[in-house]
Specification:
The protein is of the alpha/beta class. It folds into two domains: about 325 residues, no CATH class; about 180 residues, IlvD/EDD C-terminal domain-like (Glucose Oxidase, domain 1, 3-Layer(bba) Sandwich). It has an eight-stranded mixed β-sheet. Strand 5 and strand 6 form a beta hairpin. Helix 6 runs parallel beside helix 7 and helix 7 packs parallel to helix 14. It starts with a helix and ends in a 13-residue tail after the last helix. Pathway: Carbohydrate metabolism; Entner-Doudoroff pathway. Keywords: 4Fe-4S, Carbohydrate metabolism, Gluconate utilization, Iron, Iron-sulfur, Lyase, Metal-binding. Its cofactor is [4Fe-4S] cluster. It is an enzyme of class 4 (lyase).
């Protein structure tokens, strides 16, 4: 089925807007690819250093220009659950590469930090910038020019976006992303949230809270809620960087290992040495990016990707905007209910039919571009499958089921959970912002209330403990943007504001910071741009100003002021406390160079 005419029109506008930068990008990619096998440009001393620790057979193979060499970029560390499974992947990949007649080497490692560990801590102020640092670290590993193809081992919040920026920067090389999968289901996410709320109210102690958290985050793999990490996996599959069905298979299972071996062999099959050359920069185009945005809307994915997708697209010369994302949101129905947008976790989502069912539903209604290239070949319809372990430990793929395994978790295009996507853009006299409404009750889509001003999330938490957060209000938490302090997630506000909302108060949040990919039931206008430190309108708000947040109309404004709001001078505050400690001093150049949130909050693209 051909793609919906509205999606086709948005895609065509994106193509036209991107033409100058996309053409320049493709010219660079094709020039690099024209050099053929890249080891051939290395001198004998260069090459000897590059394969000094290889076996004699591998040295002989790499000395010529006919055996492909696979570069592995890994985010392995053994502290973080999502990345610990990657410890055994290089050995598995090397073995699979030998079986396919190739060689594989770990080209480099990249840092992987966890927002769950750093929530509310100074280290969170490094988190967003770690994305661009990851891209740079991957670039260092690949700069040795020893490789014909690449595989990227990454899962979580900033890691996959950083790795994709690297994959597009080295767009002359094929790139396959290999995930580790989610941990098995532990304590239900709604029960975890209940205990968190009881702790915030002082009704349970730290021991009870830690016990609940430990039962929720309990083993290898990604967290099971549908935050940024699992949104990453959805994106890599729907954009064609994963093999079909690879995203949500648990670590340490035979099928997970079979998919990793298959991905390795596929990465070697699509090099310039074969007949299916698929350089990443040519493979990912405007249609692929639009498919990613559509997947984000259809699943109620992470708000963080309103920044990450913009930066990822720009790495390939594609000028995606918040306006594109907003327009697609009006077209794409919400088909998944995964926590925090429901009670299920990603394991339940996968069991209900997962990515294969979701993609098949969207394709049937022309809500995805099928005519795209992927690492698996041509056409996204190859991803409308059910994956399982076949005979002899191989991967078997069957057509996606016609019906959902659990209609409460995964629905059809004909009976969506909501007619439009879960992400909206807001604009008005306060600037531009993003809001996630897939878990916000309809009666809270419009909030009109006086402002309460805070310059740190701890200030709001202290006000809550003091009992001063009474009545209806809009919490304005400002000076939290990328230039101010690295744009930390303000996840700890979710519980506090949720408690007040449950008490019957009408509350909302406005911030130039971020909320977690798991943010949910409280209406939150986030990523406000221009940010306060740049003199944005959010810095002009005064205590008691009436603010109207209208997620239906897509507006965010200060109203009924006694003066002309536009003529006010923005306030400024002392930000020196953000400059030192936990490595923050090392990231001063990033804070100085970063662009605004609507352009990806990147040091590269603005």
């Amino acid at each position: 089925m051909s793609v919906d005419s509205r999606i086709a029109a948005i895609t065509q506008r994106l193509i036209e807007r991107s033409k100058p930068t996309r053409e320049a990008y493709l010219e660079r990619v094709r020039k690099a690819a024209a050099q053929s096998v890249h080891r051939s440009v290395l001198g004998c001393g260069n090459l000897a250093h590059g394969f000094a620790v290889c076996s004699p057979a591998e040295k002989q193979a790499l000395a010529g220009d006919v055996v492909p060499n696979l570069g592995i970029i890994t985010s392995y560390n053994d502290m973080l659950s999502a990345h610990q499974p990657f410890e055994t992947y290089p050995a598995m990949i090397r073995e699979a590469a030998r079986e396919a007649g190739g060689v594989a080497q770990v080209a480099g490692g990249v840092p992987a930090m966890c927002d769950g560990v750093t929530q509310g801590q100074p280290g969170m102020e490094l988190s967003l910038f770690s994305r661009d640092l990851i891209a740079m670290a991957a670039g260092v590993g690949l700069s040795h020019n020893m490789f014909d193809s690449t595989v990227y081992l990454g899962v979580c919040d900033k890691i996959v976006p950083g790795l994709m920026i690297a994959a597009m920067t080295f767009g002359h090389l094929p790139a396959v992303f290999i995930p580790a999968g989610p941990m098995t289901t532990g304590l239900p996410n709604d029960e975890k949230a209940r205990v968190r709320q009881l702790f915030a109210e002082g009704k349970v102690g730290r021991d009870e809270l830690l016990a609940a958290e430990s039962k929720s985050y309990h083993g290898p793999g990604t967290c099971t809620f549908y935050g940024t990490a699992n949104s990453n996996q959805m994106l890599m599959e729907i954009m064609g960087f994963h093999l079909p069905g690879a995203s949500f298979i648990n670590p340490g299972t035979p099928l997970r290992d079979a998919l990793t071996r298959e991905a390795t062999k596929r990465a070697l099959a699509i090099t310039a040495l074969g007949n299916e050359f698929t350089p990443a920069g040519e493979m990912i185009d405007e249609r692929s990016i639009v498919n990613g945005v559509i997947g984000l809307h259809a699943t109620g994915g992470s708000t963080n990707h309103t920044m990450h997708l913009v930066a990822m697209a720009r790495a390939g010369g594609i000028q995606l905007t918040w306006a594109d994302i907003a327009e697609l949101s009006d077209i794409i129905p919400l088909l998944a209910r995964v926590y925090p947008n429901g009670l299920a976790d990603v394991n339940h989502f996968h069991a209900a039919g997962g990515m294969g069912f979701l993609i098949s539903q969207l394709l049937k209604q022309g809500l995805l571009h099928d005519d795209v290239r992927t690492v698996f070949g041509h056409g996204l319809s190859a991803y409308a499958i059910d994956v399982r372990l076949g005979e002899n430990g191989t991967v078997e793929r069957l057509p996606a089921p016609e019906t959902s395994g659990d209609p409460k978790v995964l629905s059809t295009v004909d009976q969506p959970f909501q007619a439009s996507g879960g992400l909206r853009m807001l604009s008005g006299n306060l600037g531009k912002a993003v809001i996630k409404i897939s878990a916000v009750k309809p009666e809270r889509h419009i909030i009109e209330a006086p402002a309460k001003i805070f310059h740190d999330q701890s200030e709001l938490q202290a006000a809550f403990k003091d009992g001063t957060l009474t009545g209806n209000f809009v919490a304005v938490v400002r000076f939290q943007g990328p230039k101010a302090n690295g744009m930390p997630e303000l996840h700890k506000l979710t519980t506090v504001l949720g408690i007040l909302q449950d008490r019957g108060q009408m509350v909302a949040l406005i911030t130039d910071g971020r909320m977690s990919g798991a943010s949910g039931k409280v209406p939150s206008a986030i990523h406000m741009t221009p940010e306060a430190v740049d003199g944005g309108p959010i810095a002009k708000i005064r205590e008691g100003d009436m603010i109207r947040l209208d997620a239906i109309a897509g507006t965010i404004d200060v109203i009924n002021t006694a003066d002309d709001f536009a003529d006010r001078l923005p306030v400024s505050i002392d930000l020196s406390a953000n400059e030192f400690g936990m490595g923050r001093e090392l990231f001063a150049p990033f804070r100085a160079a970063t662009g605004p949130a609507d352009q990806g909050a990147s040091v590269f693209f603005h």
